[in-house]
Amino acid sequence: MKRGIIHGLLPLLLPYCALFCAGLALTLAQSLGLFLPLGSGEVSIEHYQTLIQDQGIRQSLGLSLSVAFFSATGSVLGGTVLALALWRMPPSLRRVGVVSKVGLILPHVAVAFLVLLLLSRTGLVASVLFQTGIISSPEEFPSILHTGSGLGMILAFLLKGVPFALLLIGAVLFGFDIRLIQTARMLGAGPLRTFRSVTLPRLLPAMHSAFIILFLYAFGSFDIPFVLGESHPGMLSIRVFDIFFQRDLSQRPQAMAILTLMFVFAALFAMLYNRFAAYLDGWRRKL
Question: Which helix (H) or strand (E) holds 225?
């Protein structure tokens, strides 16, 4: 049986192993100084040591983590609220909810330019405020983008992340057995306790999955940070781009070392977060 399953998956596994695993192995090798166009060809960890001592890399790591955390958390919370609101709508009005999923079909780079055109000091909102006399010049419009806080990137990731979370959590809600809620209400549970004890536990797996996917995507994303990101400190993906394409070949192992550490972090994060979610679920069941 297992052999049959493996044989059936071979057409999918072979391209995966050839492209992903080979690319990962080459990235790791070049981060250690091997298979490079230039260099001695000896194994060295000096590029990892350089990264650890580089304050700019630590700032980029902090920015990447904060942007990923706030955008993923906001997306999951926003998607949950919208999914609950859509679920409670009369069936005849649920078609309106299709509008909330428009962000899913837009490319990330298009969303980034949309935020830029709306919220920059030469954007639509600043122009409307200036034309209506609310502000005397576009320079008075508060600086939202390129401030070093990553706020513009978080807003762009929210525009893409909320519809995605809505899709995952809404799929669970619309398959939910409404009789469980009716039974809880008949037994005297209030709306809040019914949500906390009946509805929320069934949504948590989808919420956790959405958070992991959105967090890791934002952490390693390139397109939105390229349009809305700051030059210093830039997101880690932008640092990799700068080192790989705009510096000499001798620094290429640093870019590969950053990519290797990002992959290790993503794998560890997904594993630890799943264990944390399982622990929370077990702790909740004991209550």
Answer: helix 223-228
